[in-house]
Amino acid sequence: MPTAFSTATLRSKRCVGRRPTRTAWRVGDPWECTISFSSASSRASRRCGSAIPGWRLGYTKDAVSSHFVFHQLQKEGVIPQGVRFQVCLPLTFSAIGLFFPDPADHAKVAPGVTAAFRAEIAKMFDLIPPEELAIQWDLAVENRLVDTALAREGPAAAEALAARLAAPAGEIAPAILEGVALGYHGCFGTLSGWPSRQPPDLGGSVILLNAMVAASGRRVDFLHLPTLGTADEAFFAPLERLRAPDAKIYLGAIHHMHDADGLRRQLQTARRHLAEFGLAAPCGFGRAPERPGRLLTAEGSAPPPDILDIIVRDHLNAVEVLHEAGA
Questions:
Q1: Tens digits of residue pLDDT in 16-59
Q2: 159 vs 141: CA distance, rounded Å
Q3: Which of 101, 201, 58, 67 is nearest to 143 (CA)?
Q4: Exposed, middle or buried by CB within 10 Å (0-12, 13-18, 19+), for 57?
Q5: pTM of the full predicted structure?
Q6: What per-residue string of b and e applies to 20-42 under the rule 16 or more CB within 10 Å gives b?
């Protein structure tokens, strides 16, 4: 296996009905890789609903079904041994935000949803070997709320809100077995095409991820922060305030918003504020061809079967830029 990269996250399109997502590489340590398939849709989750704890939300059913395919691909040599299977779930407020638009309802609904998520992952641990598994919590709604509070009310209010939004992580993460890799994904939104919004800097994302790490009560293995098209120092300066000593950091910088030399300049700027990081796409690869906005390069909106080849090529090109920028 290659040894130039320590972590690669590749969410493949090989499982029908699962949303494949990003690939990430990191320079310096032994190769590790995670392949993940996330739930296809909220409708699928509702169809899979059950009164039995651990099966109520549908994520366990999707994870177990996808892991079967993942395991078969490993047996066939398509996926290397040692690659982790990653399950991506929305943390509580991302799960309920669109379905319960009145914030007054959140306090009533959040405890039950958090308990259901905790039961889902506990059931996954019964059915998927922990050493093969990674759990990622997606924070699209939480990131938007903290960014908004930071812009309107300042850092103290944003930190207080982030602590409240991270409370579900404090209830769930300690129950995640030690052998399972745990990570959090900051997000700028995708519903109207990525990015749905463009905050002025990474300050809100850093505040939120710091709160998640503090609440987790166990080791956090990786964090992901998206970038935009800018290489301005002010955008990346908040990375200096990131408090995650045990986590590998990935910047979602592989996307279509750069100009001809934009990725290189962005990585050079980021390295002045964060000494070590890997690369990723900004968010998921699950894009319907008709959805507005491109994911990676201009060709990245091409419909299957070409899109996966384009995604892989864009990521391999980005790895070369990362090596050159760090030289």
A1: 333 333 333 333 333 334 444 444 333 333 344 456 766 778 89
A2: 15
A3: 201
A4: buried
A5: 0.80
A6: bbbbbbbbeeebbbbbbbbbbee
Q: Which two tokens stand for residue 44?
A: 């699928």
8 Å CB contact between 215 and 170 = yes
pLDDT per position as a tens digit, 174-233? 999 999 999 999 999 877 667 778 899 999 999 999 999 999 999 999 999 999 989 999
Domains, the chain, in order of start with CATH, read 84-326 (3.20.20)
3-state SS class at 138:
strand
CB atoms within 10 A of CB 47: 10
Tokens 């905790």 sit on residue: 118
Nearest to 40 by CA among 59, 12, 67: 59
- SS3 assignment, position 5: strand
> What is the per-residue pLDDT for 14?
30
Q: Say yes or no to pLDDT of 69 above 70.
A: yes
Task: Show the tokens assigned to 237.
Answer: 């300066």
In terms of Cα–Cα distance, which of 242, 248, 245, 258 is closest to 300?
Answer: 258
Paired tokens of 101: 């638009």
Helices (H) and strands (E) in the chain, counts: 11, 9
Rounded Cα–Cα distance for residues 194 and 252 (Å): 12
Strand 248-252's sheet: what is its strand order?
8-9, 33-36, 84-90, 133-139, 181-186, 222-226, 248-252, 278-280, 25-26
Region for residue 308 given its phi and psi (left: phi exceeds 0; alpha: psi -120 to 50; beta: otherwise): alpha
| CA pair distance 177, 49, nearest whole angstrom | 24
